Amino acid sequence: MPDLGKYAAEVYAAYGATFVLLAVLVALTWARAARIRRQLQQAEEERRHG
Amino acid sequence: MIRLVLRDLALAVRAGGGFGLGLAFFLIVVVLVPFAVGPETARLTAIAPGILWLGALLACLLSLDRIFALDYEDGTLDLLACAPIPLEGVAVAKALAHWLTTGLPLTLAAPVLGIFLNLPAGGFGWLVVSLALGTPALSVIGAFGAALTVGLRRGGLLLSLLVLPLYVPTLIFGAEVARRGAEGLAVQGPLLLLAGVTAGALALLPFAAAAALRINLR
Amino acid sequence: MSLWEYANPARFMGLSAKVLPVVAGLSLLCLGVGLVWGFFFTPDDYRQGATVKIIYLHVPSAMMAINAWVMMLVASLIWLIRRHHVSALAARAAAPVGMVMTLIALATGAIWGQPMWGTWWAWDPRLTSFLILFLFYLGYVALWEAIEDPDTAADLTAVLCLVGSVFAVLSRYAVNFWNQGLHQGASLSLDKEENVSDVFWLPLVVCIAGFVLLFLALVLVRTRTEIRARRLHALRLRARMG
């Protein structure tokens, strides 16, 4: 770990906040993408067989 | 168009039209401010122009959703869309009626309420001028916001969310004119910019409002 | 062969399926290299100390916050003029990403400002205009969510985006004017260009590339999701009818 001196808390906080926000964004995007993809697959199946 | 303005005025003044509501709201905001920040005269004097502008802006916001919503519900708007005047004209007429029933009374009431906030004597004139120049912009921007949200059942809160960021330039320049006027500084710069914002909004936004109305009436 | 062929959702899905892994991989690579380089292998600034490392997050996210809005504006224009559905959906897909970028820029800026300026927040023109930009994103996303009919929603948000762009630029200048009016002479300079030397510049460029690619990847994923959602909606309507 590099020596961040007296500003360690600020730097870690900034990196932490950014990663949390990006992680939430990516997770939400991913979750919705997976859900819609699954539902669409299901609907296509039904249309083909039903 | 003149008929449309007169009709809206008549509807607003009639009982239940909500004509006095904006004014009453403005009064209450201004009366509540000293309770919140304390009664010291110097402090009130310093914030008076800003509070008066903010109060007028919020009072204006309060009645925006009435601009098109009622006419949309009872089908008048569909008839207006088929009428031989362009929808842009309808938007202008509606915004004008809104200004006559809220912006103008607010402008006239502001100096009276300024007394409560210890507005300096030199500030009254510029306060009225800035409100008279700025409130038409508030009305026409509001008409655009109302046109965007006219088809929504619960459009009121969304309307505020959409319109408030659009009000930023008007508020900044308007309150700046009033503040400089109250402090006896030169007001020409912000006054010209305020007039510019209003003129630009008046020229362009009726088209955007009419476009939004057409989409919503489709 | 022209760009407009990708206005066809099927073609867009085909192409984006191929492009997406590349973009996502490259963005992870750039972000990894840039941030590790910036975090571990750059010296501290003689005035700012270690807080200079925040620049690798702050500047790219702030750039993307503005670029995302510009992209939405272009996509909205394409939708209004040429009626390509993919374009409208791309604008919708970009908005939340831009909003998060704005939040990151504001958050990292505040964390940097606390030790450097001695305050989390100052009503500096740049900070204020970013806050206003955030409000614009909020209104835009809320309008998309509020309207049920997809084409009406696309049209109205596109109009809002156009008007909002004009007012966002106007607010930027208004805010500049306002703050000068309040604090004559006293300035919080955010001009970072002057103290950025090559040591900081190179990893910063890599980070910016990483953020651009990340934005692209997210927008691609979200656009693909929106297209699928639209098809799902259509299938369900058809099932109900038949």
Quick structural overview:
With 50 residues, chain A is mainly α. Chain A has one helix spanning 8-49.
Please give a structural write-up:
The complex is a heterotrimer of chains A (50), B (218) and C (242). By secondary structure, chain A is mostly helical. In chain A, 84% of the residues lie in helices and 0% in strands. Chain A contains one helix and no strands. The mean pLDDT of chain A is 87. Chain B is 83% helix and 0% strand. Chain B is built from ten helices and no strands. Chain B has helices at residues 2-13, 19-37, 41-62, 66-73, 76-82, 87-116, 123-148, 155-166, 168-183, 188-217. In chain B, helix 7 crosses helix 8 (155-166) and helix 7 (123-148) packs parallel to helix 10 (188-217). The two termini of chain B are 23 Å apart. In chain C, helix 1 (9-40) runs antiparallel to helix 6 (198-241) and helix 2 (55-82) packs parallel to helix 6. Chain C has a single domain (18-44, 53-241), classed as Four Helix Bundle (Hemerythrin (Met), subunit A) (Up-down Bundle), CATH 1.20.120. With 242 residues, chain C is mainly α. Chain C is built from six helices and no strands. Chains in contact: A-C, B-C. Chain A binds chain C through residues 2-8, 10-11, 13-15, 17-18, 21-22, 24-26, 28-30, 32-33, 36-37, 39-40, 43-44, 46-47, 50, and chain C through 35, 39-40, 44, 49-51, 53-54, 57-58, 61, 96-97, 100, 103-104, 107-108, 111-112, 114-115, 214, 218, 221-222, 224-225, 228-229, 231-232, 235-236, 238-239.
